[in-house]
Amino acid sequence: MKTKIIQITAGRGPTECSWVVAQVLKLFLEEIKNSGFTYNVIQRDKGSENGTVQSATIQLKGKEIDIFLSSWLGTIQWIGTSKFRKYNKRKNWFIGMYEVKQIQLVVLKEKDISFQTMRSSGPGGQNVNKVNSAVRATYNLTGDQVVVMDSRSQHQNKKIAIERLKEKVNQSQLNNLKKSLSDQWENHLSVQRGNPIKIFKGADFKKQYKKQSYASNRQQLKKDLRNELKN
């Protein structure tokens, strides 16, 4: 079973594009359910007007997700009249749907930690300073390290160091993940306007939307995807 994270964004587009994101999000989630996949909307940023969405991030799980997404990922175009600006003559509005690259989070294992003992400093009396009770723990894969001298027991300090190092590594990975998502968001701010993967028309988005059955088109999608991979 594969897991994918998808982002639908209006980029730097105006309010009309945020409205299109909201409509596409509804249709996308409906088609996900009809195709038997599971999903979780992990982020949804509201637009400036009621009923609009600036961006949404969805986690998908299931088999053959790549085939399903091949008809969705890319630029999506809506042809219609603005409902927010009565005299605006523009008819073409564009949003983007992209796959978010996932960072593989590592699970800290004790075999990847190096330990170094040293004499504790500060309060604690002569017994503390005469033995190497303090512990420095270093995670070899990232270089993160902590020093613990909470206890007079070297064994106890080692246990504490492992837990604190886990917290530090997890926080570091979380920060890297947030930066990755932010960088990808910046890359997608300028939505490409050429070669849309889907085109919708009309004020009533749902009625104008020509619904396609993923199940009925699965074999053709597989064939197209194989041909694309060969080229």
TrEMBL record:
<dbReference type="InterPro" id="IPR050057">
    <property type="entry name" value="Prokaryotic/Mito_RF"/>
</dbReference>
<comment type="similarity">
    <text>Belongs to the prokaryotic/mitochondrial release factor family.</text>
</comment>
<dbReference type="Pfam" id="PF00472">
    <property type="entry name" value="RF-1"/>
</dbReference>
<dbReference type="GO" id="GO:0003747">
    <property type="term" value="F:translation release factor activity"/>
</dbReference>
<protein>
    <submittedName>
        <fullName>Peptide chain release factor</fullName>
    </submittedName>
</protein>
<dbReference type="InterPro" id="IPR017509">
    <property type="entry name" value="PrfH"/>
</dbReference>
<dbReference type="InterPro" id="IPR045853">
    <property type="entry name" value="Pep_chain_release_fac_I_sf"/>
</dbReference>
<feature type="domain" description="Prokaryotic-type class I peptide chain release factors">
    <location>
        <begin position="119"/>
        <end position="135"/>
    </location>
</feature>
<dbReference type="InterPro" id="IPR000352">
    <property type="entry name" value="Pep_chain_release_fac_I"/>
</dbReference>
